[in-house]
């Protein structure tokens, strides 16, 4: 089993009536990452890791301070006590009840004082497969230091099998999500409502549902007859079950003009978590443009509008890496597939174990079932990706776009490109 030297410790903390699940990921250098309910992430120094672990284990401030003083000589006791109070306040802030998806910002100055490169991704989006196969991949991801897995539903498979995958992830201790179109959960004879309830009872943390348009006819034209009604029913059920629901929204020519109405409809439904992904094409690709893809030059404005709507609706919106249109398949098929990953802190794992980075071509960086994680993480695909994160691609044209920290949205090299022969960016 791969071993990155990363250790993950799990805790649960009760604040009033609301339990918060914490995952403390400790990297080989002693630094770490604290995640709360898969909702927020804060980087911690080695001393911060020791403090957070002590607090979550229930030790007193005096005992934690004594331990830090004995281990880190030379630090004034008053400074340790002040830092400990800051870490305790951080944990209290992260413990507040609320939506538990997604990880929105890893370098928020209000959440952390240390910015570091990731030793492993925070999440893996794993294609639906058999339980035994899935369990082995989940165990290897956990060993590599990945605390969060999201199951990408196979629309041709039996949705009744999904609960067994959720159980497998929860048995390991992972945060677990599920991505689907709502109507897919009713296939194979099992009512969708029963599948959702069973998965929630098994420990599912969030359900990501495809939302193409607020107009039922337009939505169903792409996703399938009855899916819009199934979406509404699933959202209501998630609220009843206190299960975080996420709308996964494609953006292309056909629905861009309606984006504000779509987000208003989601707000009215109480859906405040949204993952947006653009179906895009290079400016010179006239065929793809005519098929409905958004040309590269339009993406900065689309992203600006998306985040302005987040502010207007007070929602938590996440911009997934754009998907390059494959004209051989068409936009509808790629909408159903969704983005390769929901964020830049995520990798995609195919059913056969192949690992893909968030951006670039379809070439695998290795196989989770046969390769050591250190070899996968050192692959050229991730090297190029890390270089972009370490040297943000900002320019004066879009100074306020947070997504530019990973890649310029206008640059096709920074999109996910799953066409046969797509270039690795």
Estimate the global geometry from the Cα principal axes: globular
Number of helices: 15
Give the termini separation.
Answer: 29 Å
Give the SSE string.
Answer: EEEEHHHEHEHEHEHHEHHEHEHEEHEEHH
Secondary structure tally: strands:
15
Low-confidence runs: 99-116
Sheet of most strands: 11 strands, mixed
Helical percent range? 25-40%
Radius of gyration: 21 Å
| Overall average pLDDT | 85
Structural class: alpha/beta
Strand proportion, as a percent range, falls in 15-25%
Describe the protein.
With about 425 residues, the chain is of the alpha/beta class. About 35% of the residues lie in helices and about 20% in strands. It has 15 helices and 15 strands. The strands form 2 sheets. Strands 5, 6, 7, 8, 9, 10, 11, 12, 13, 14 and 15 form an 11-stranded mixed β-sheet that branches. The chain has a 4-stranded antiparallel β-sheet with strand order 1-2-3-4, with helices on both faces. β10, α11 and β11 form a beta-alpha-beta unit. About 5% of the residues have low confidence.
Relevant terms:
425 residues, alpha/beta, four-stranded antiparallel sheet
Describe what is shown at a glance:
With 425 residues, the chain is an alpha/beta fold. It has 15 helices and 15 strands. Helix 5 links the parallel strand 6 and strand 7 (175-180).
């Amino acid at each position: 089993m791969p071993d990155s030297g990363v250790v993950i410790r799990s805790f649960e903390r009760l604040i009033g009536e609301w339990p918060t699940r914490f995952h403390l990921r400790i990297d080989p250098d002693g630094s770490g990452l604290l995640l709360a309910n898969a909702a927020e992430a804060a980087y911690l120094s080695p001393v911060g890791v020791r403090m957070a672990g002590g607090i979550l284990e229930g030790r007193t401030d005096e005992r934690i301070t004594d331990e830090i003083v004995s281990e880190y000589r030379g630090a004034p006791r008053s400074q340790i006590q002040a830092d400990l109070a800051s870490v305790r306040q951080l944990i209290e802030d992260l413990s507040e009840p609320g939506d538990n998806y997604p990880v929105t910002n890893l370098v928020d100055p209000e959440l952390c004082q240390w910015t570091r490169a990731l030793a492993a991704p925070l999440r893996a989006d794993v294609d639906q497969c058999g339980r035994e196969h899935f369990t082995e991949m989940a165990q290897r991801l956990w060993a590599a230091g990945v605390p969060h897995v999201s199951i990408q539903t196979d629309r041709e498979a039996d949705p009744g099998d999904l609960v067994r995958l959720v159980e497998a992830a929860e048995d390991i201790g992972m945060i677990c999500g599920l991505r689907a179109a709502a109507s897919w959960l009713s296939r194979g004879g099992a009512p969708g409502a029963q599948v959702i309830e069973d998965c929630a009872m098994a420990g599912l943390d969030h359900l990501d549902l495809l939302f193409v348009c607020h107009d039922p006819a337009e939505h169903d034209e792409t996703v399938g007859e009855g899916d819009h009604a199934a979406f509404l029913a699933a959202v209501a059920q998630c609220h009843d079950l206190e299960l975080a629901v996420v709308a996964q929204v494609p953006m292309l020519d056909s629905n861009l003009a309606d984006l504000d109405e779509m987000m208003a409809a989601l707000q009215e439904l109480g859906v405040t978590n949204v993952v947006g992904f653009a179906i895009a094409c290079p400016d010179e690709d006239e065929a793809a443009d005519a098929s409905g893809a958004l040309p590269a030059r339009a993406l900065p404005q689309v992203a600006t509008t998306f985040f302005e709507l987040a502010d207007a609706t007070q929602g938590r919106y996440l911009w997934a890496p754009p998907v390059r249109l494959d004209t051989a398949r068409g936009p509808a098929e790629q909408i159903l597939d969704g983005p390769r990953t929901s964020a830049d802190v995520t990798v995609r794992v195919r059913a056969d174990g192949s690992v893909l980075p968030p951006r670039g071509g379809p070439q695998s960086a290795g196989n989770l079932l046969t390769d050591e994680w250190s070899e996968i993480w050192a692959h050229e695909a991730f090297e190029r990706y890390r270089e972009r994160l370490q040297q943000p691609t900002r320019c004066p044209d879009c100074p306020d776009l947070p997504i530019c920290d990973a890649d310029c949205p206008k640059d096709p090299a920074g999109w996910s490109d799953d066409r046969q022969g797509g270039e690795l960016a």
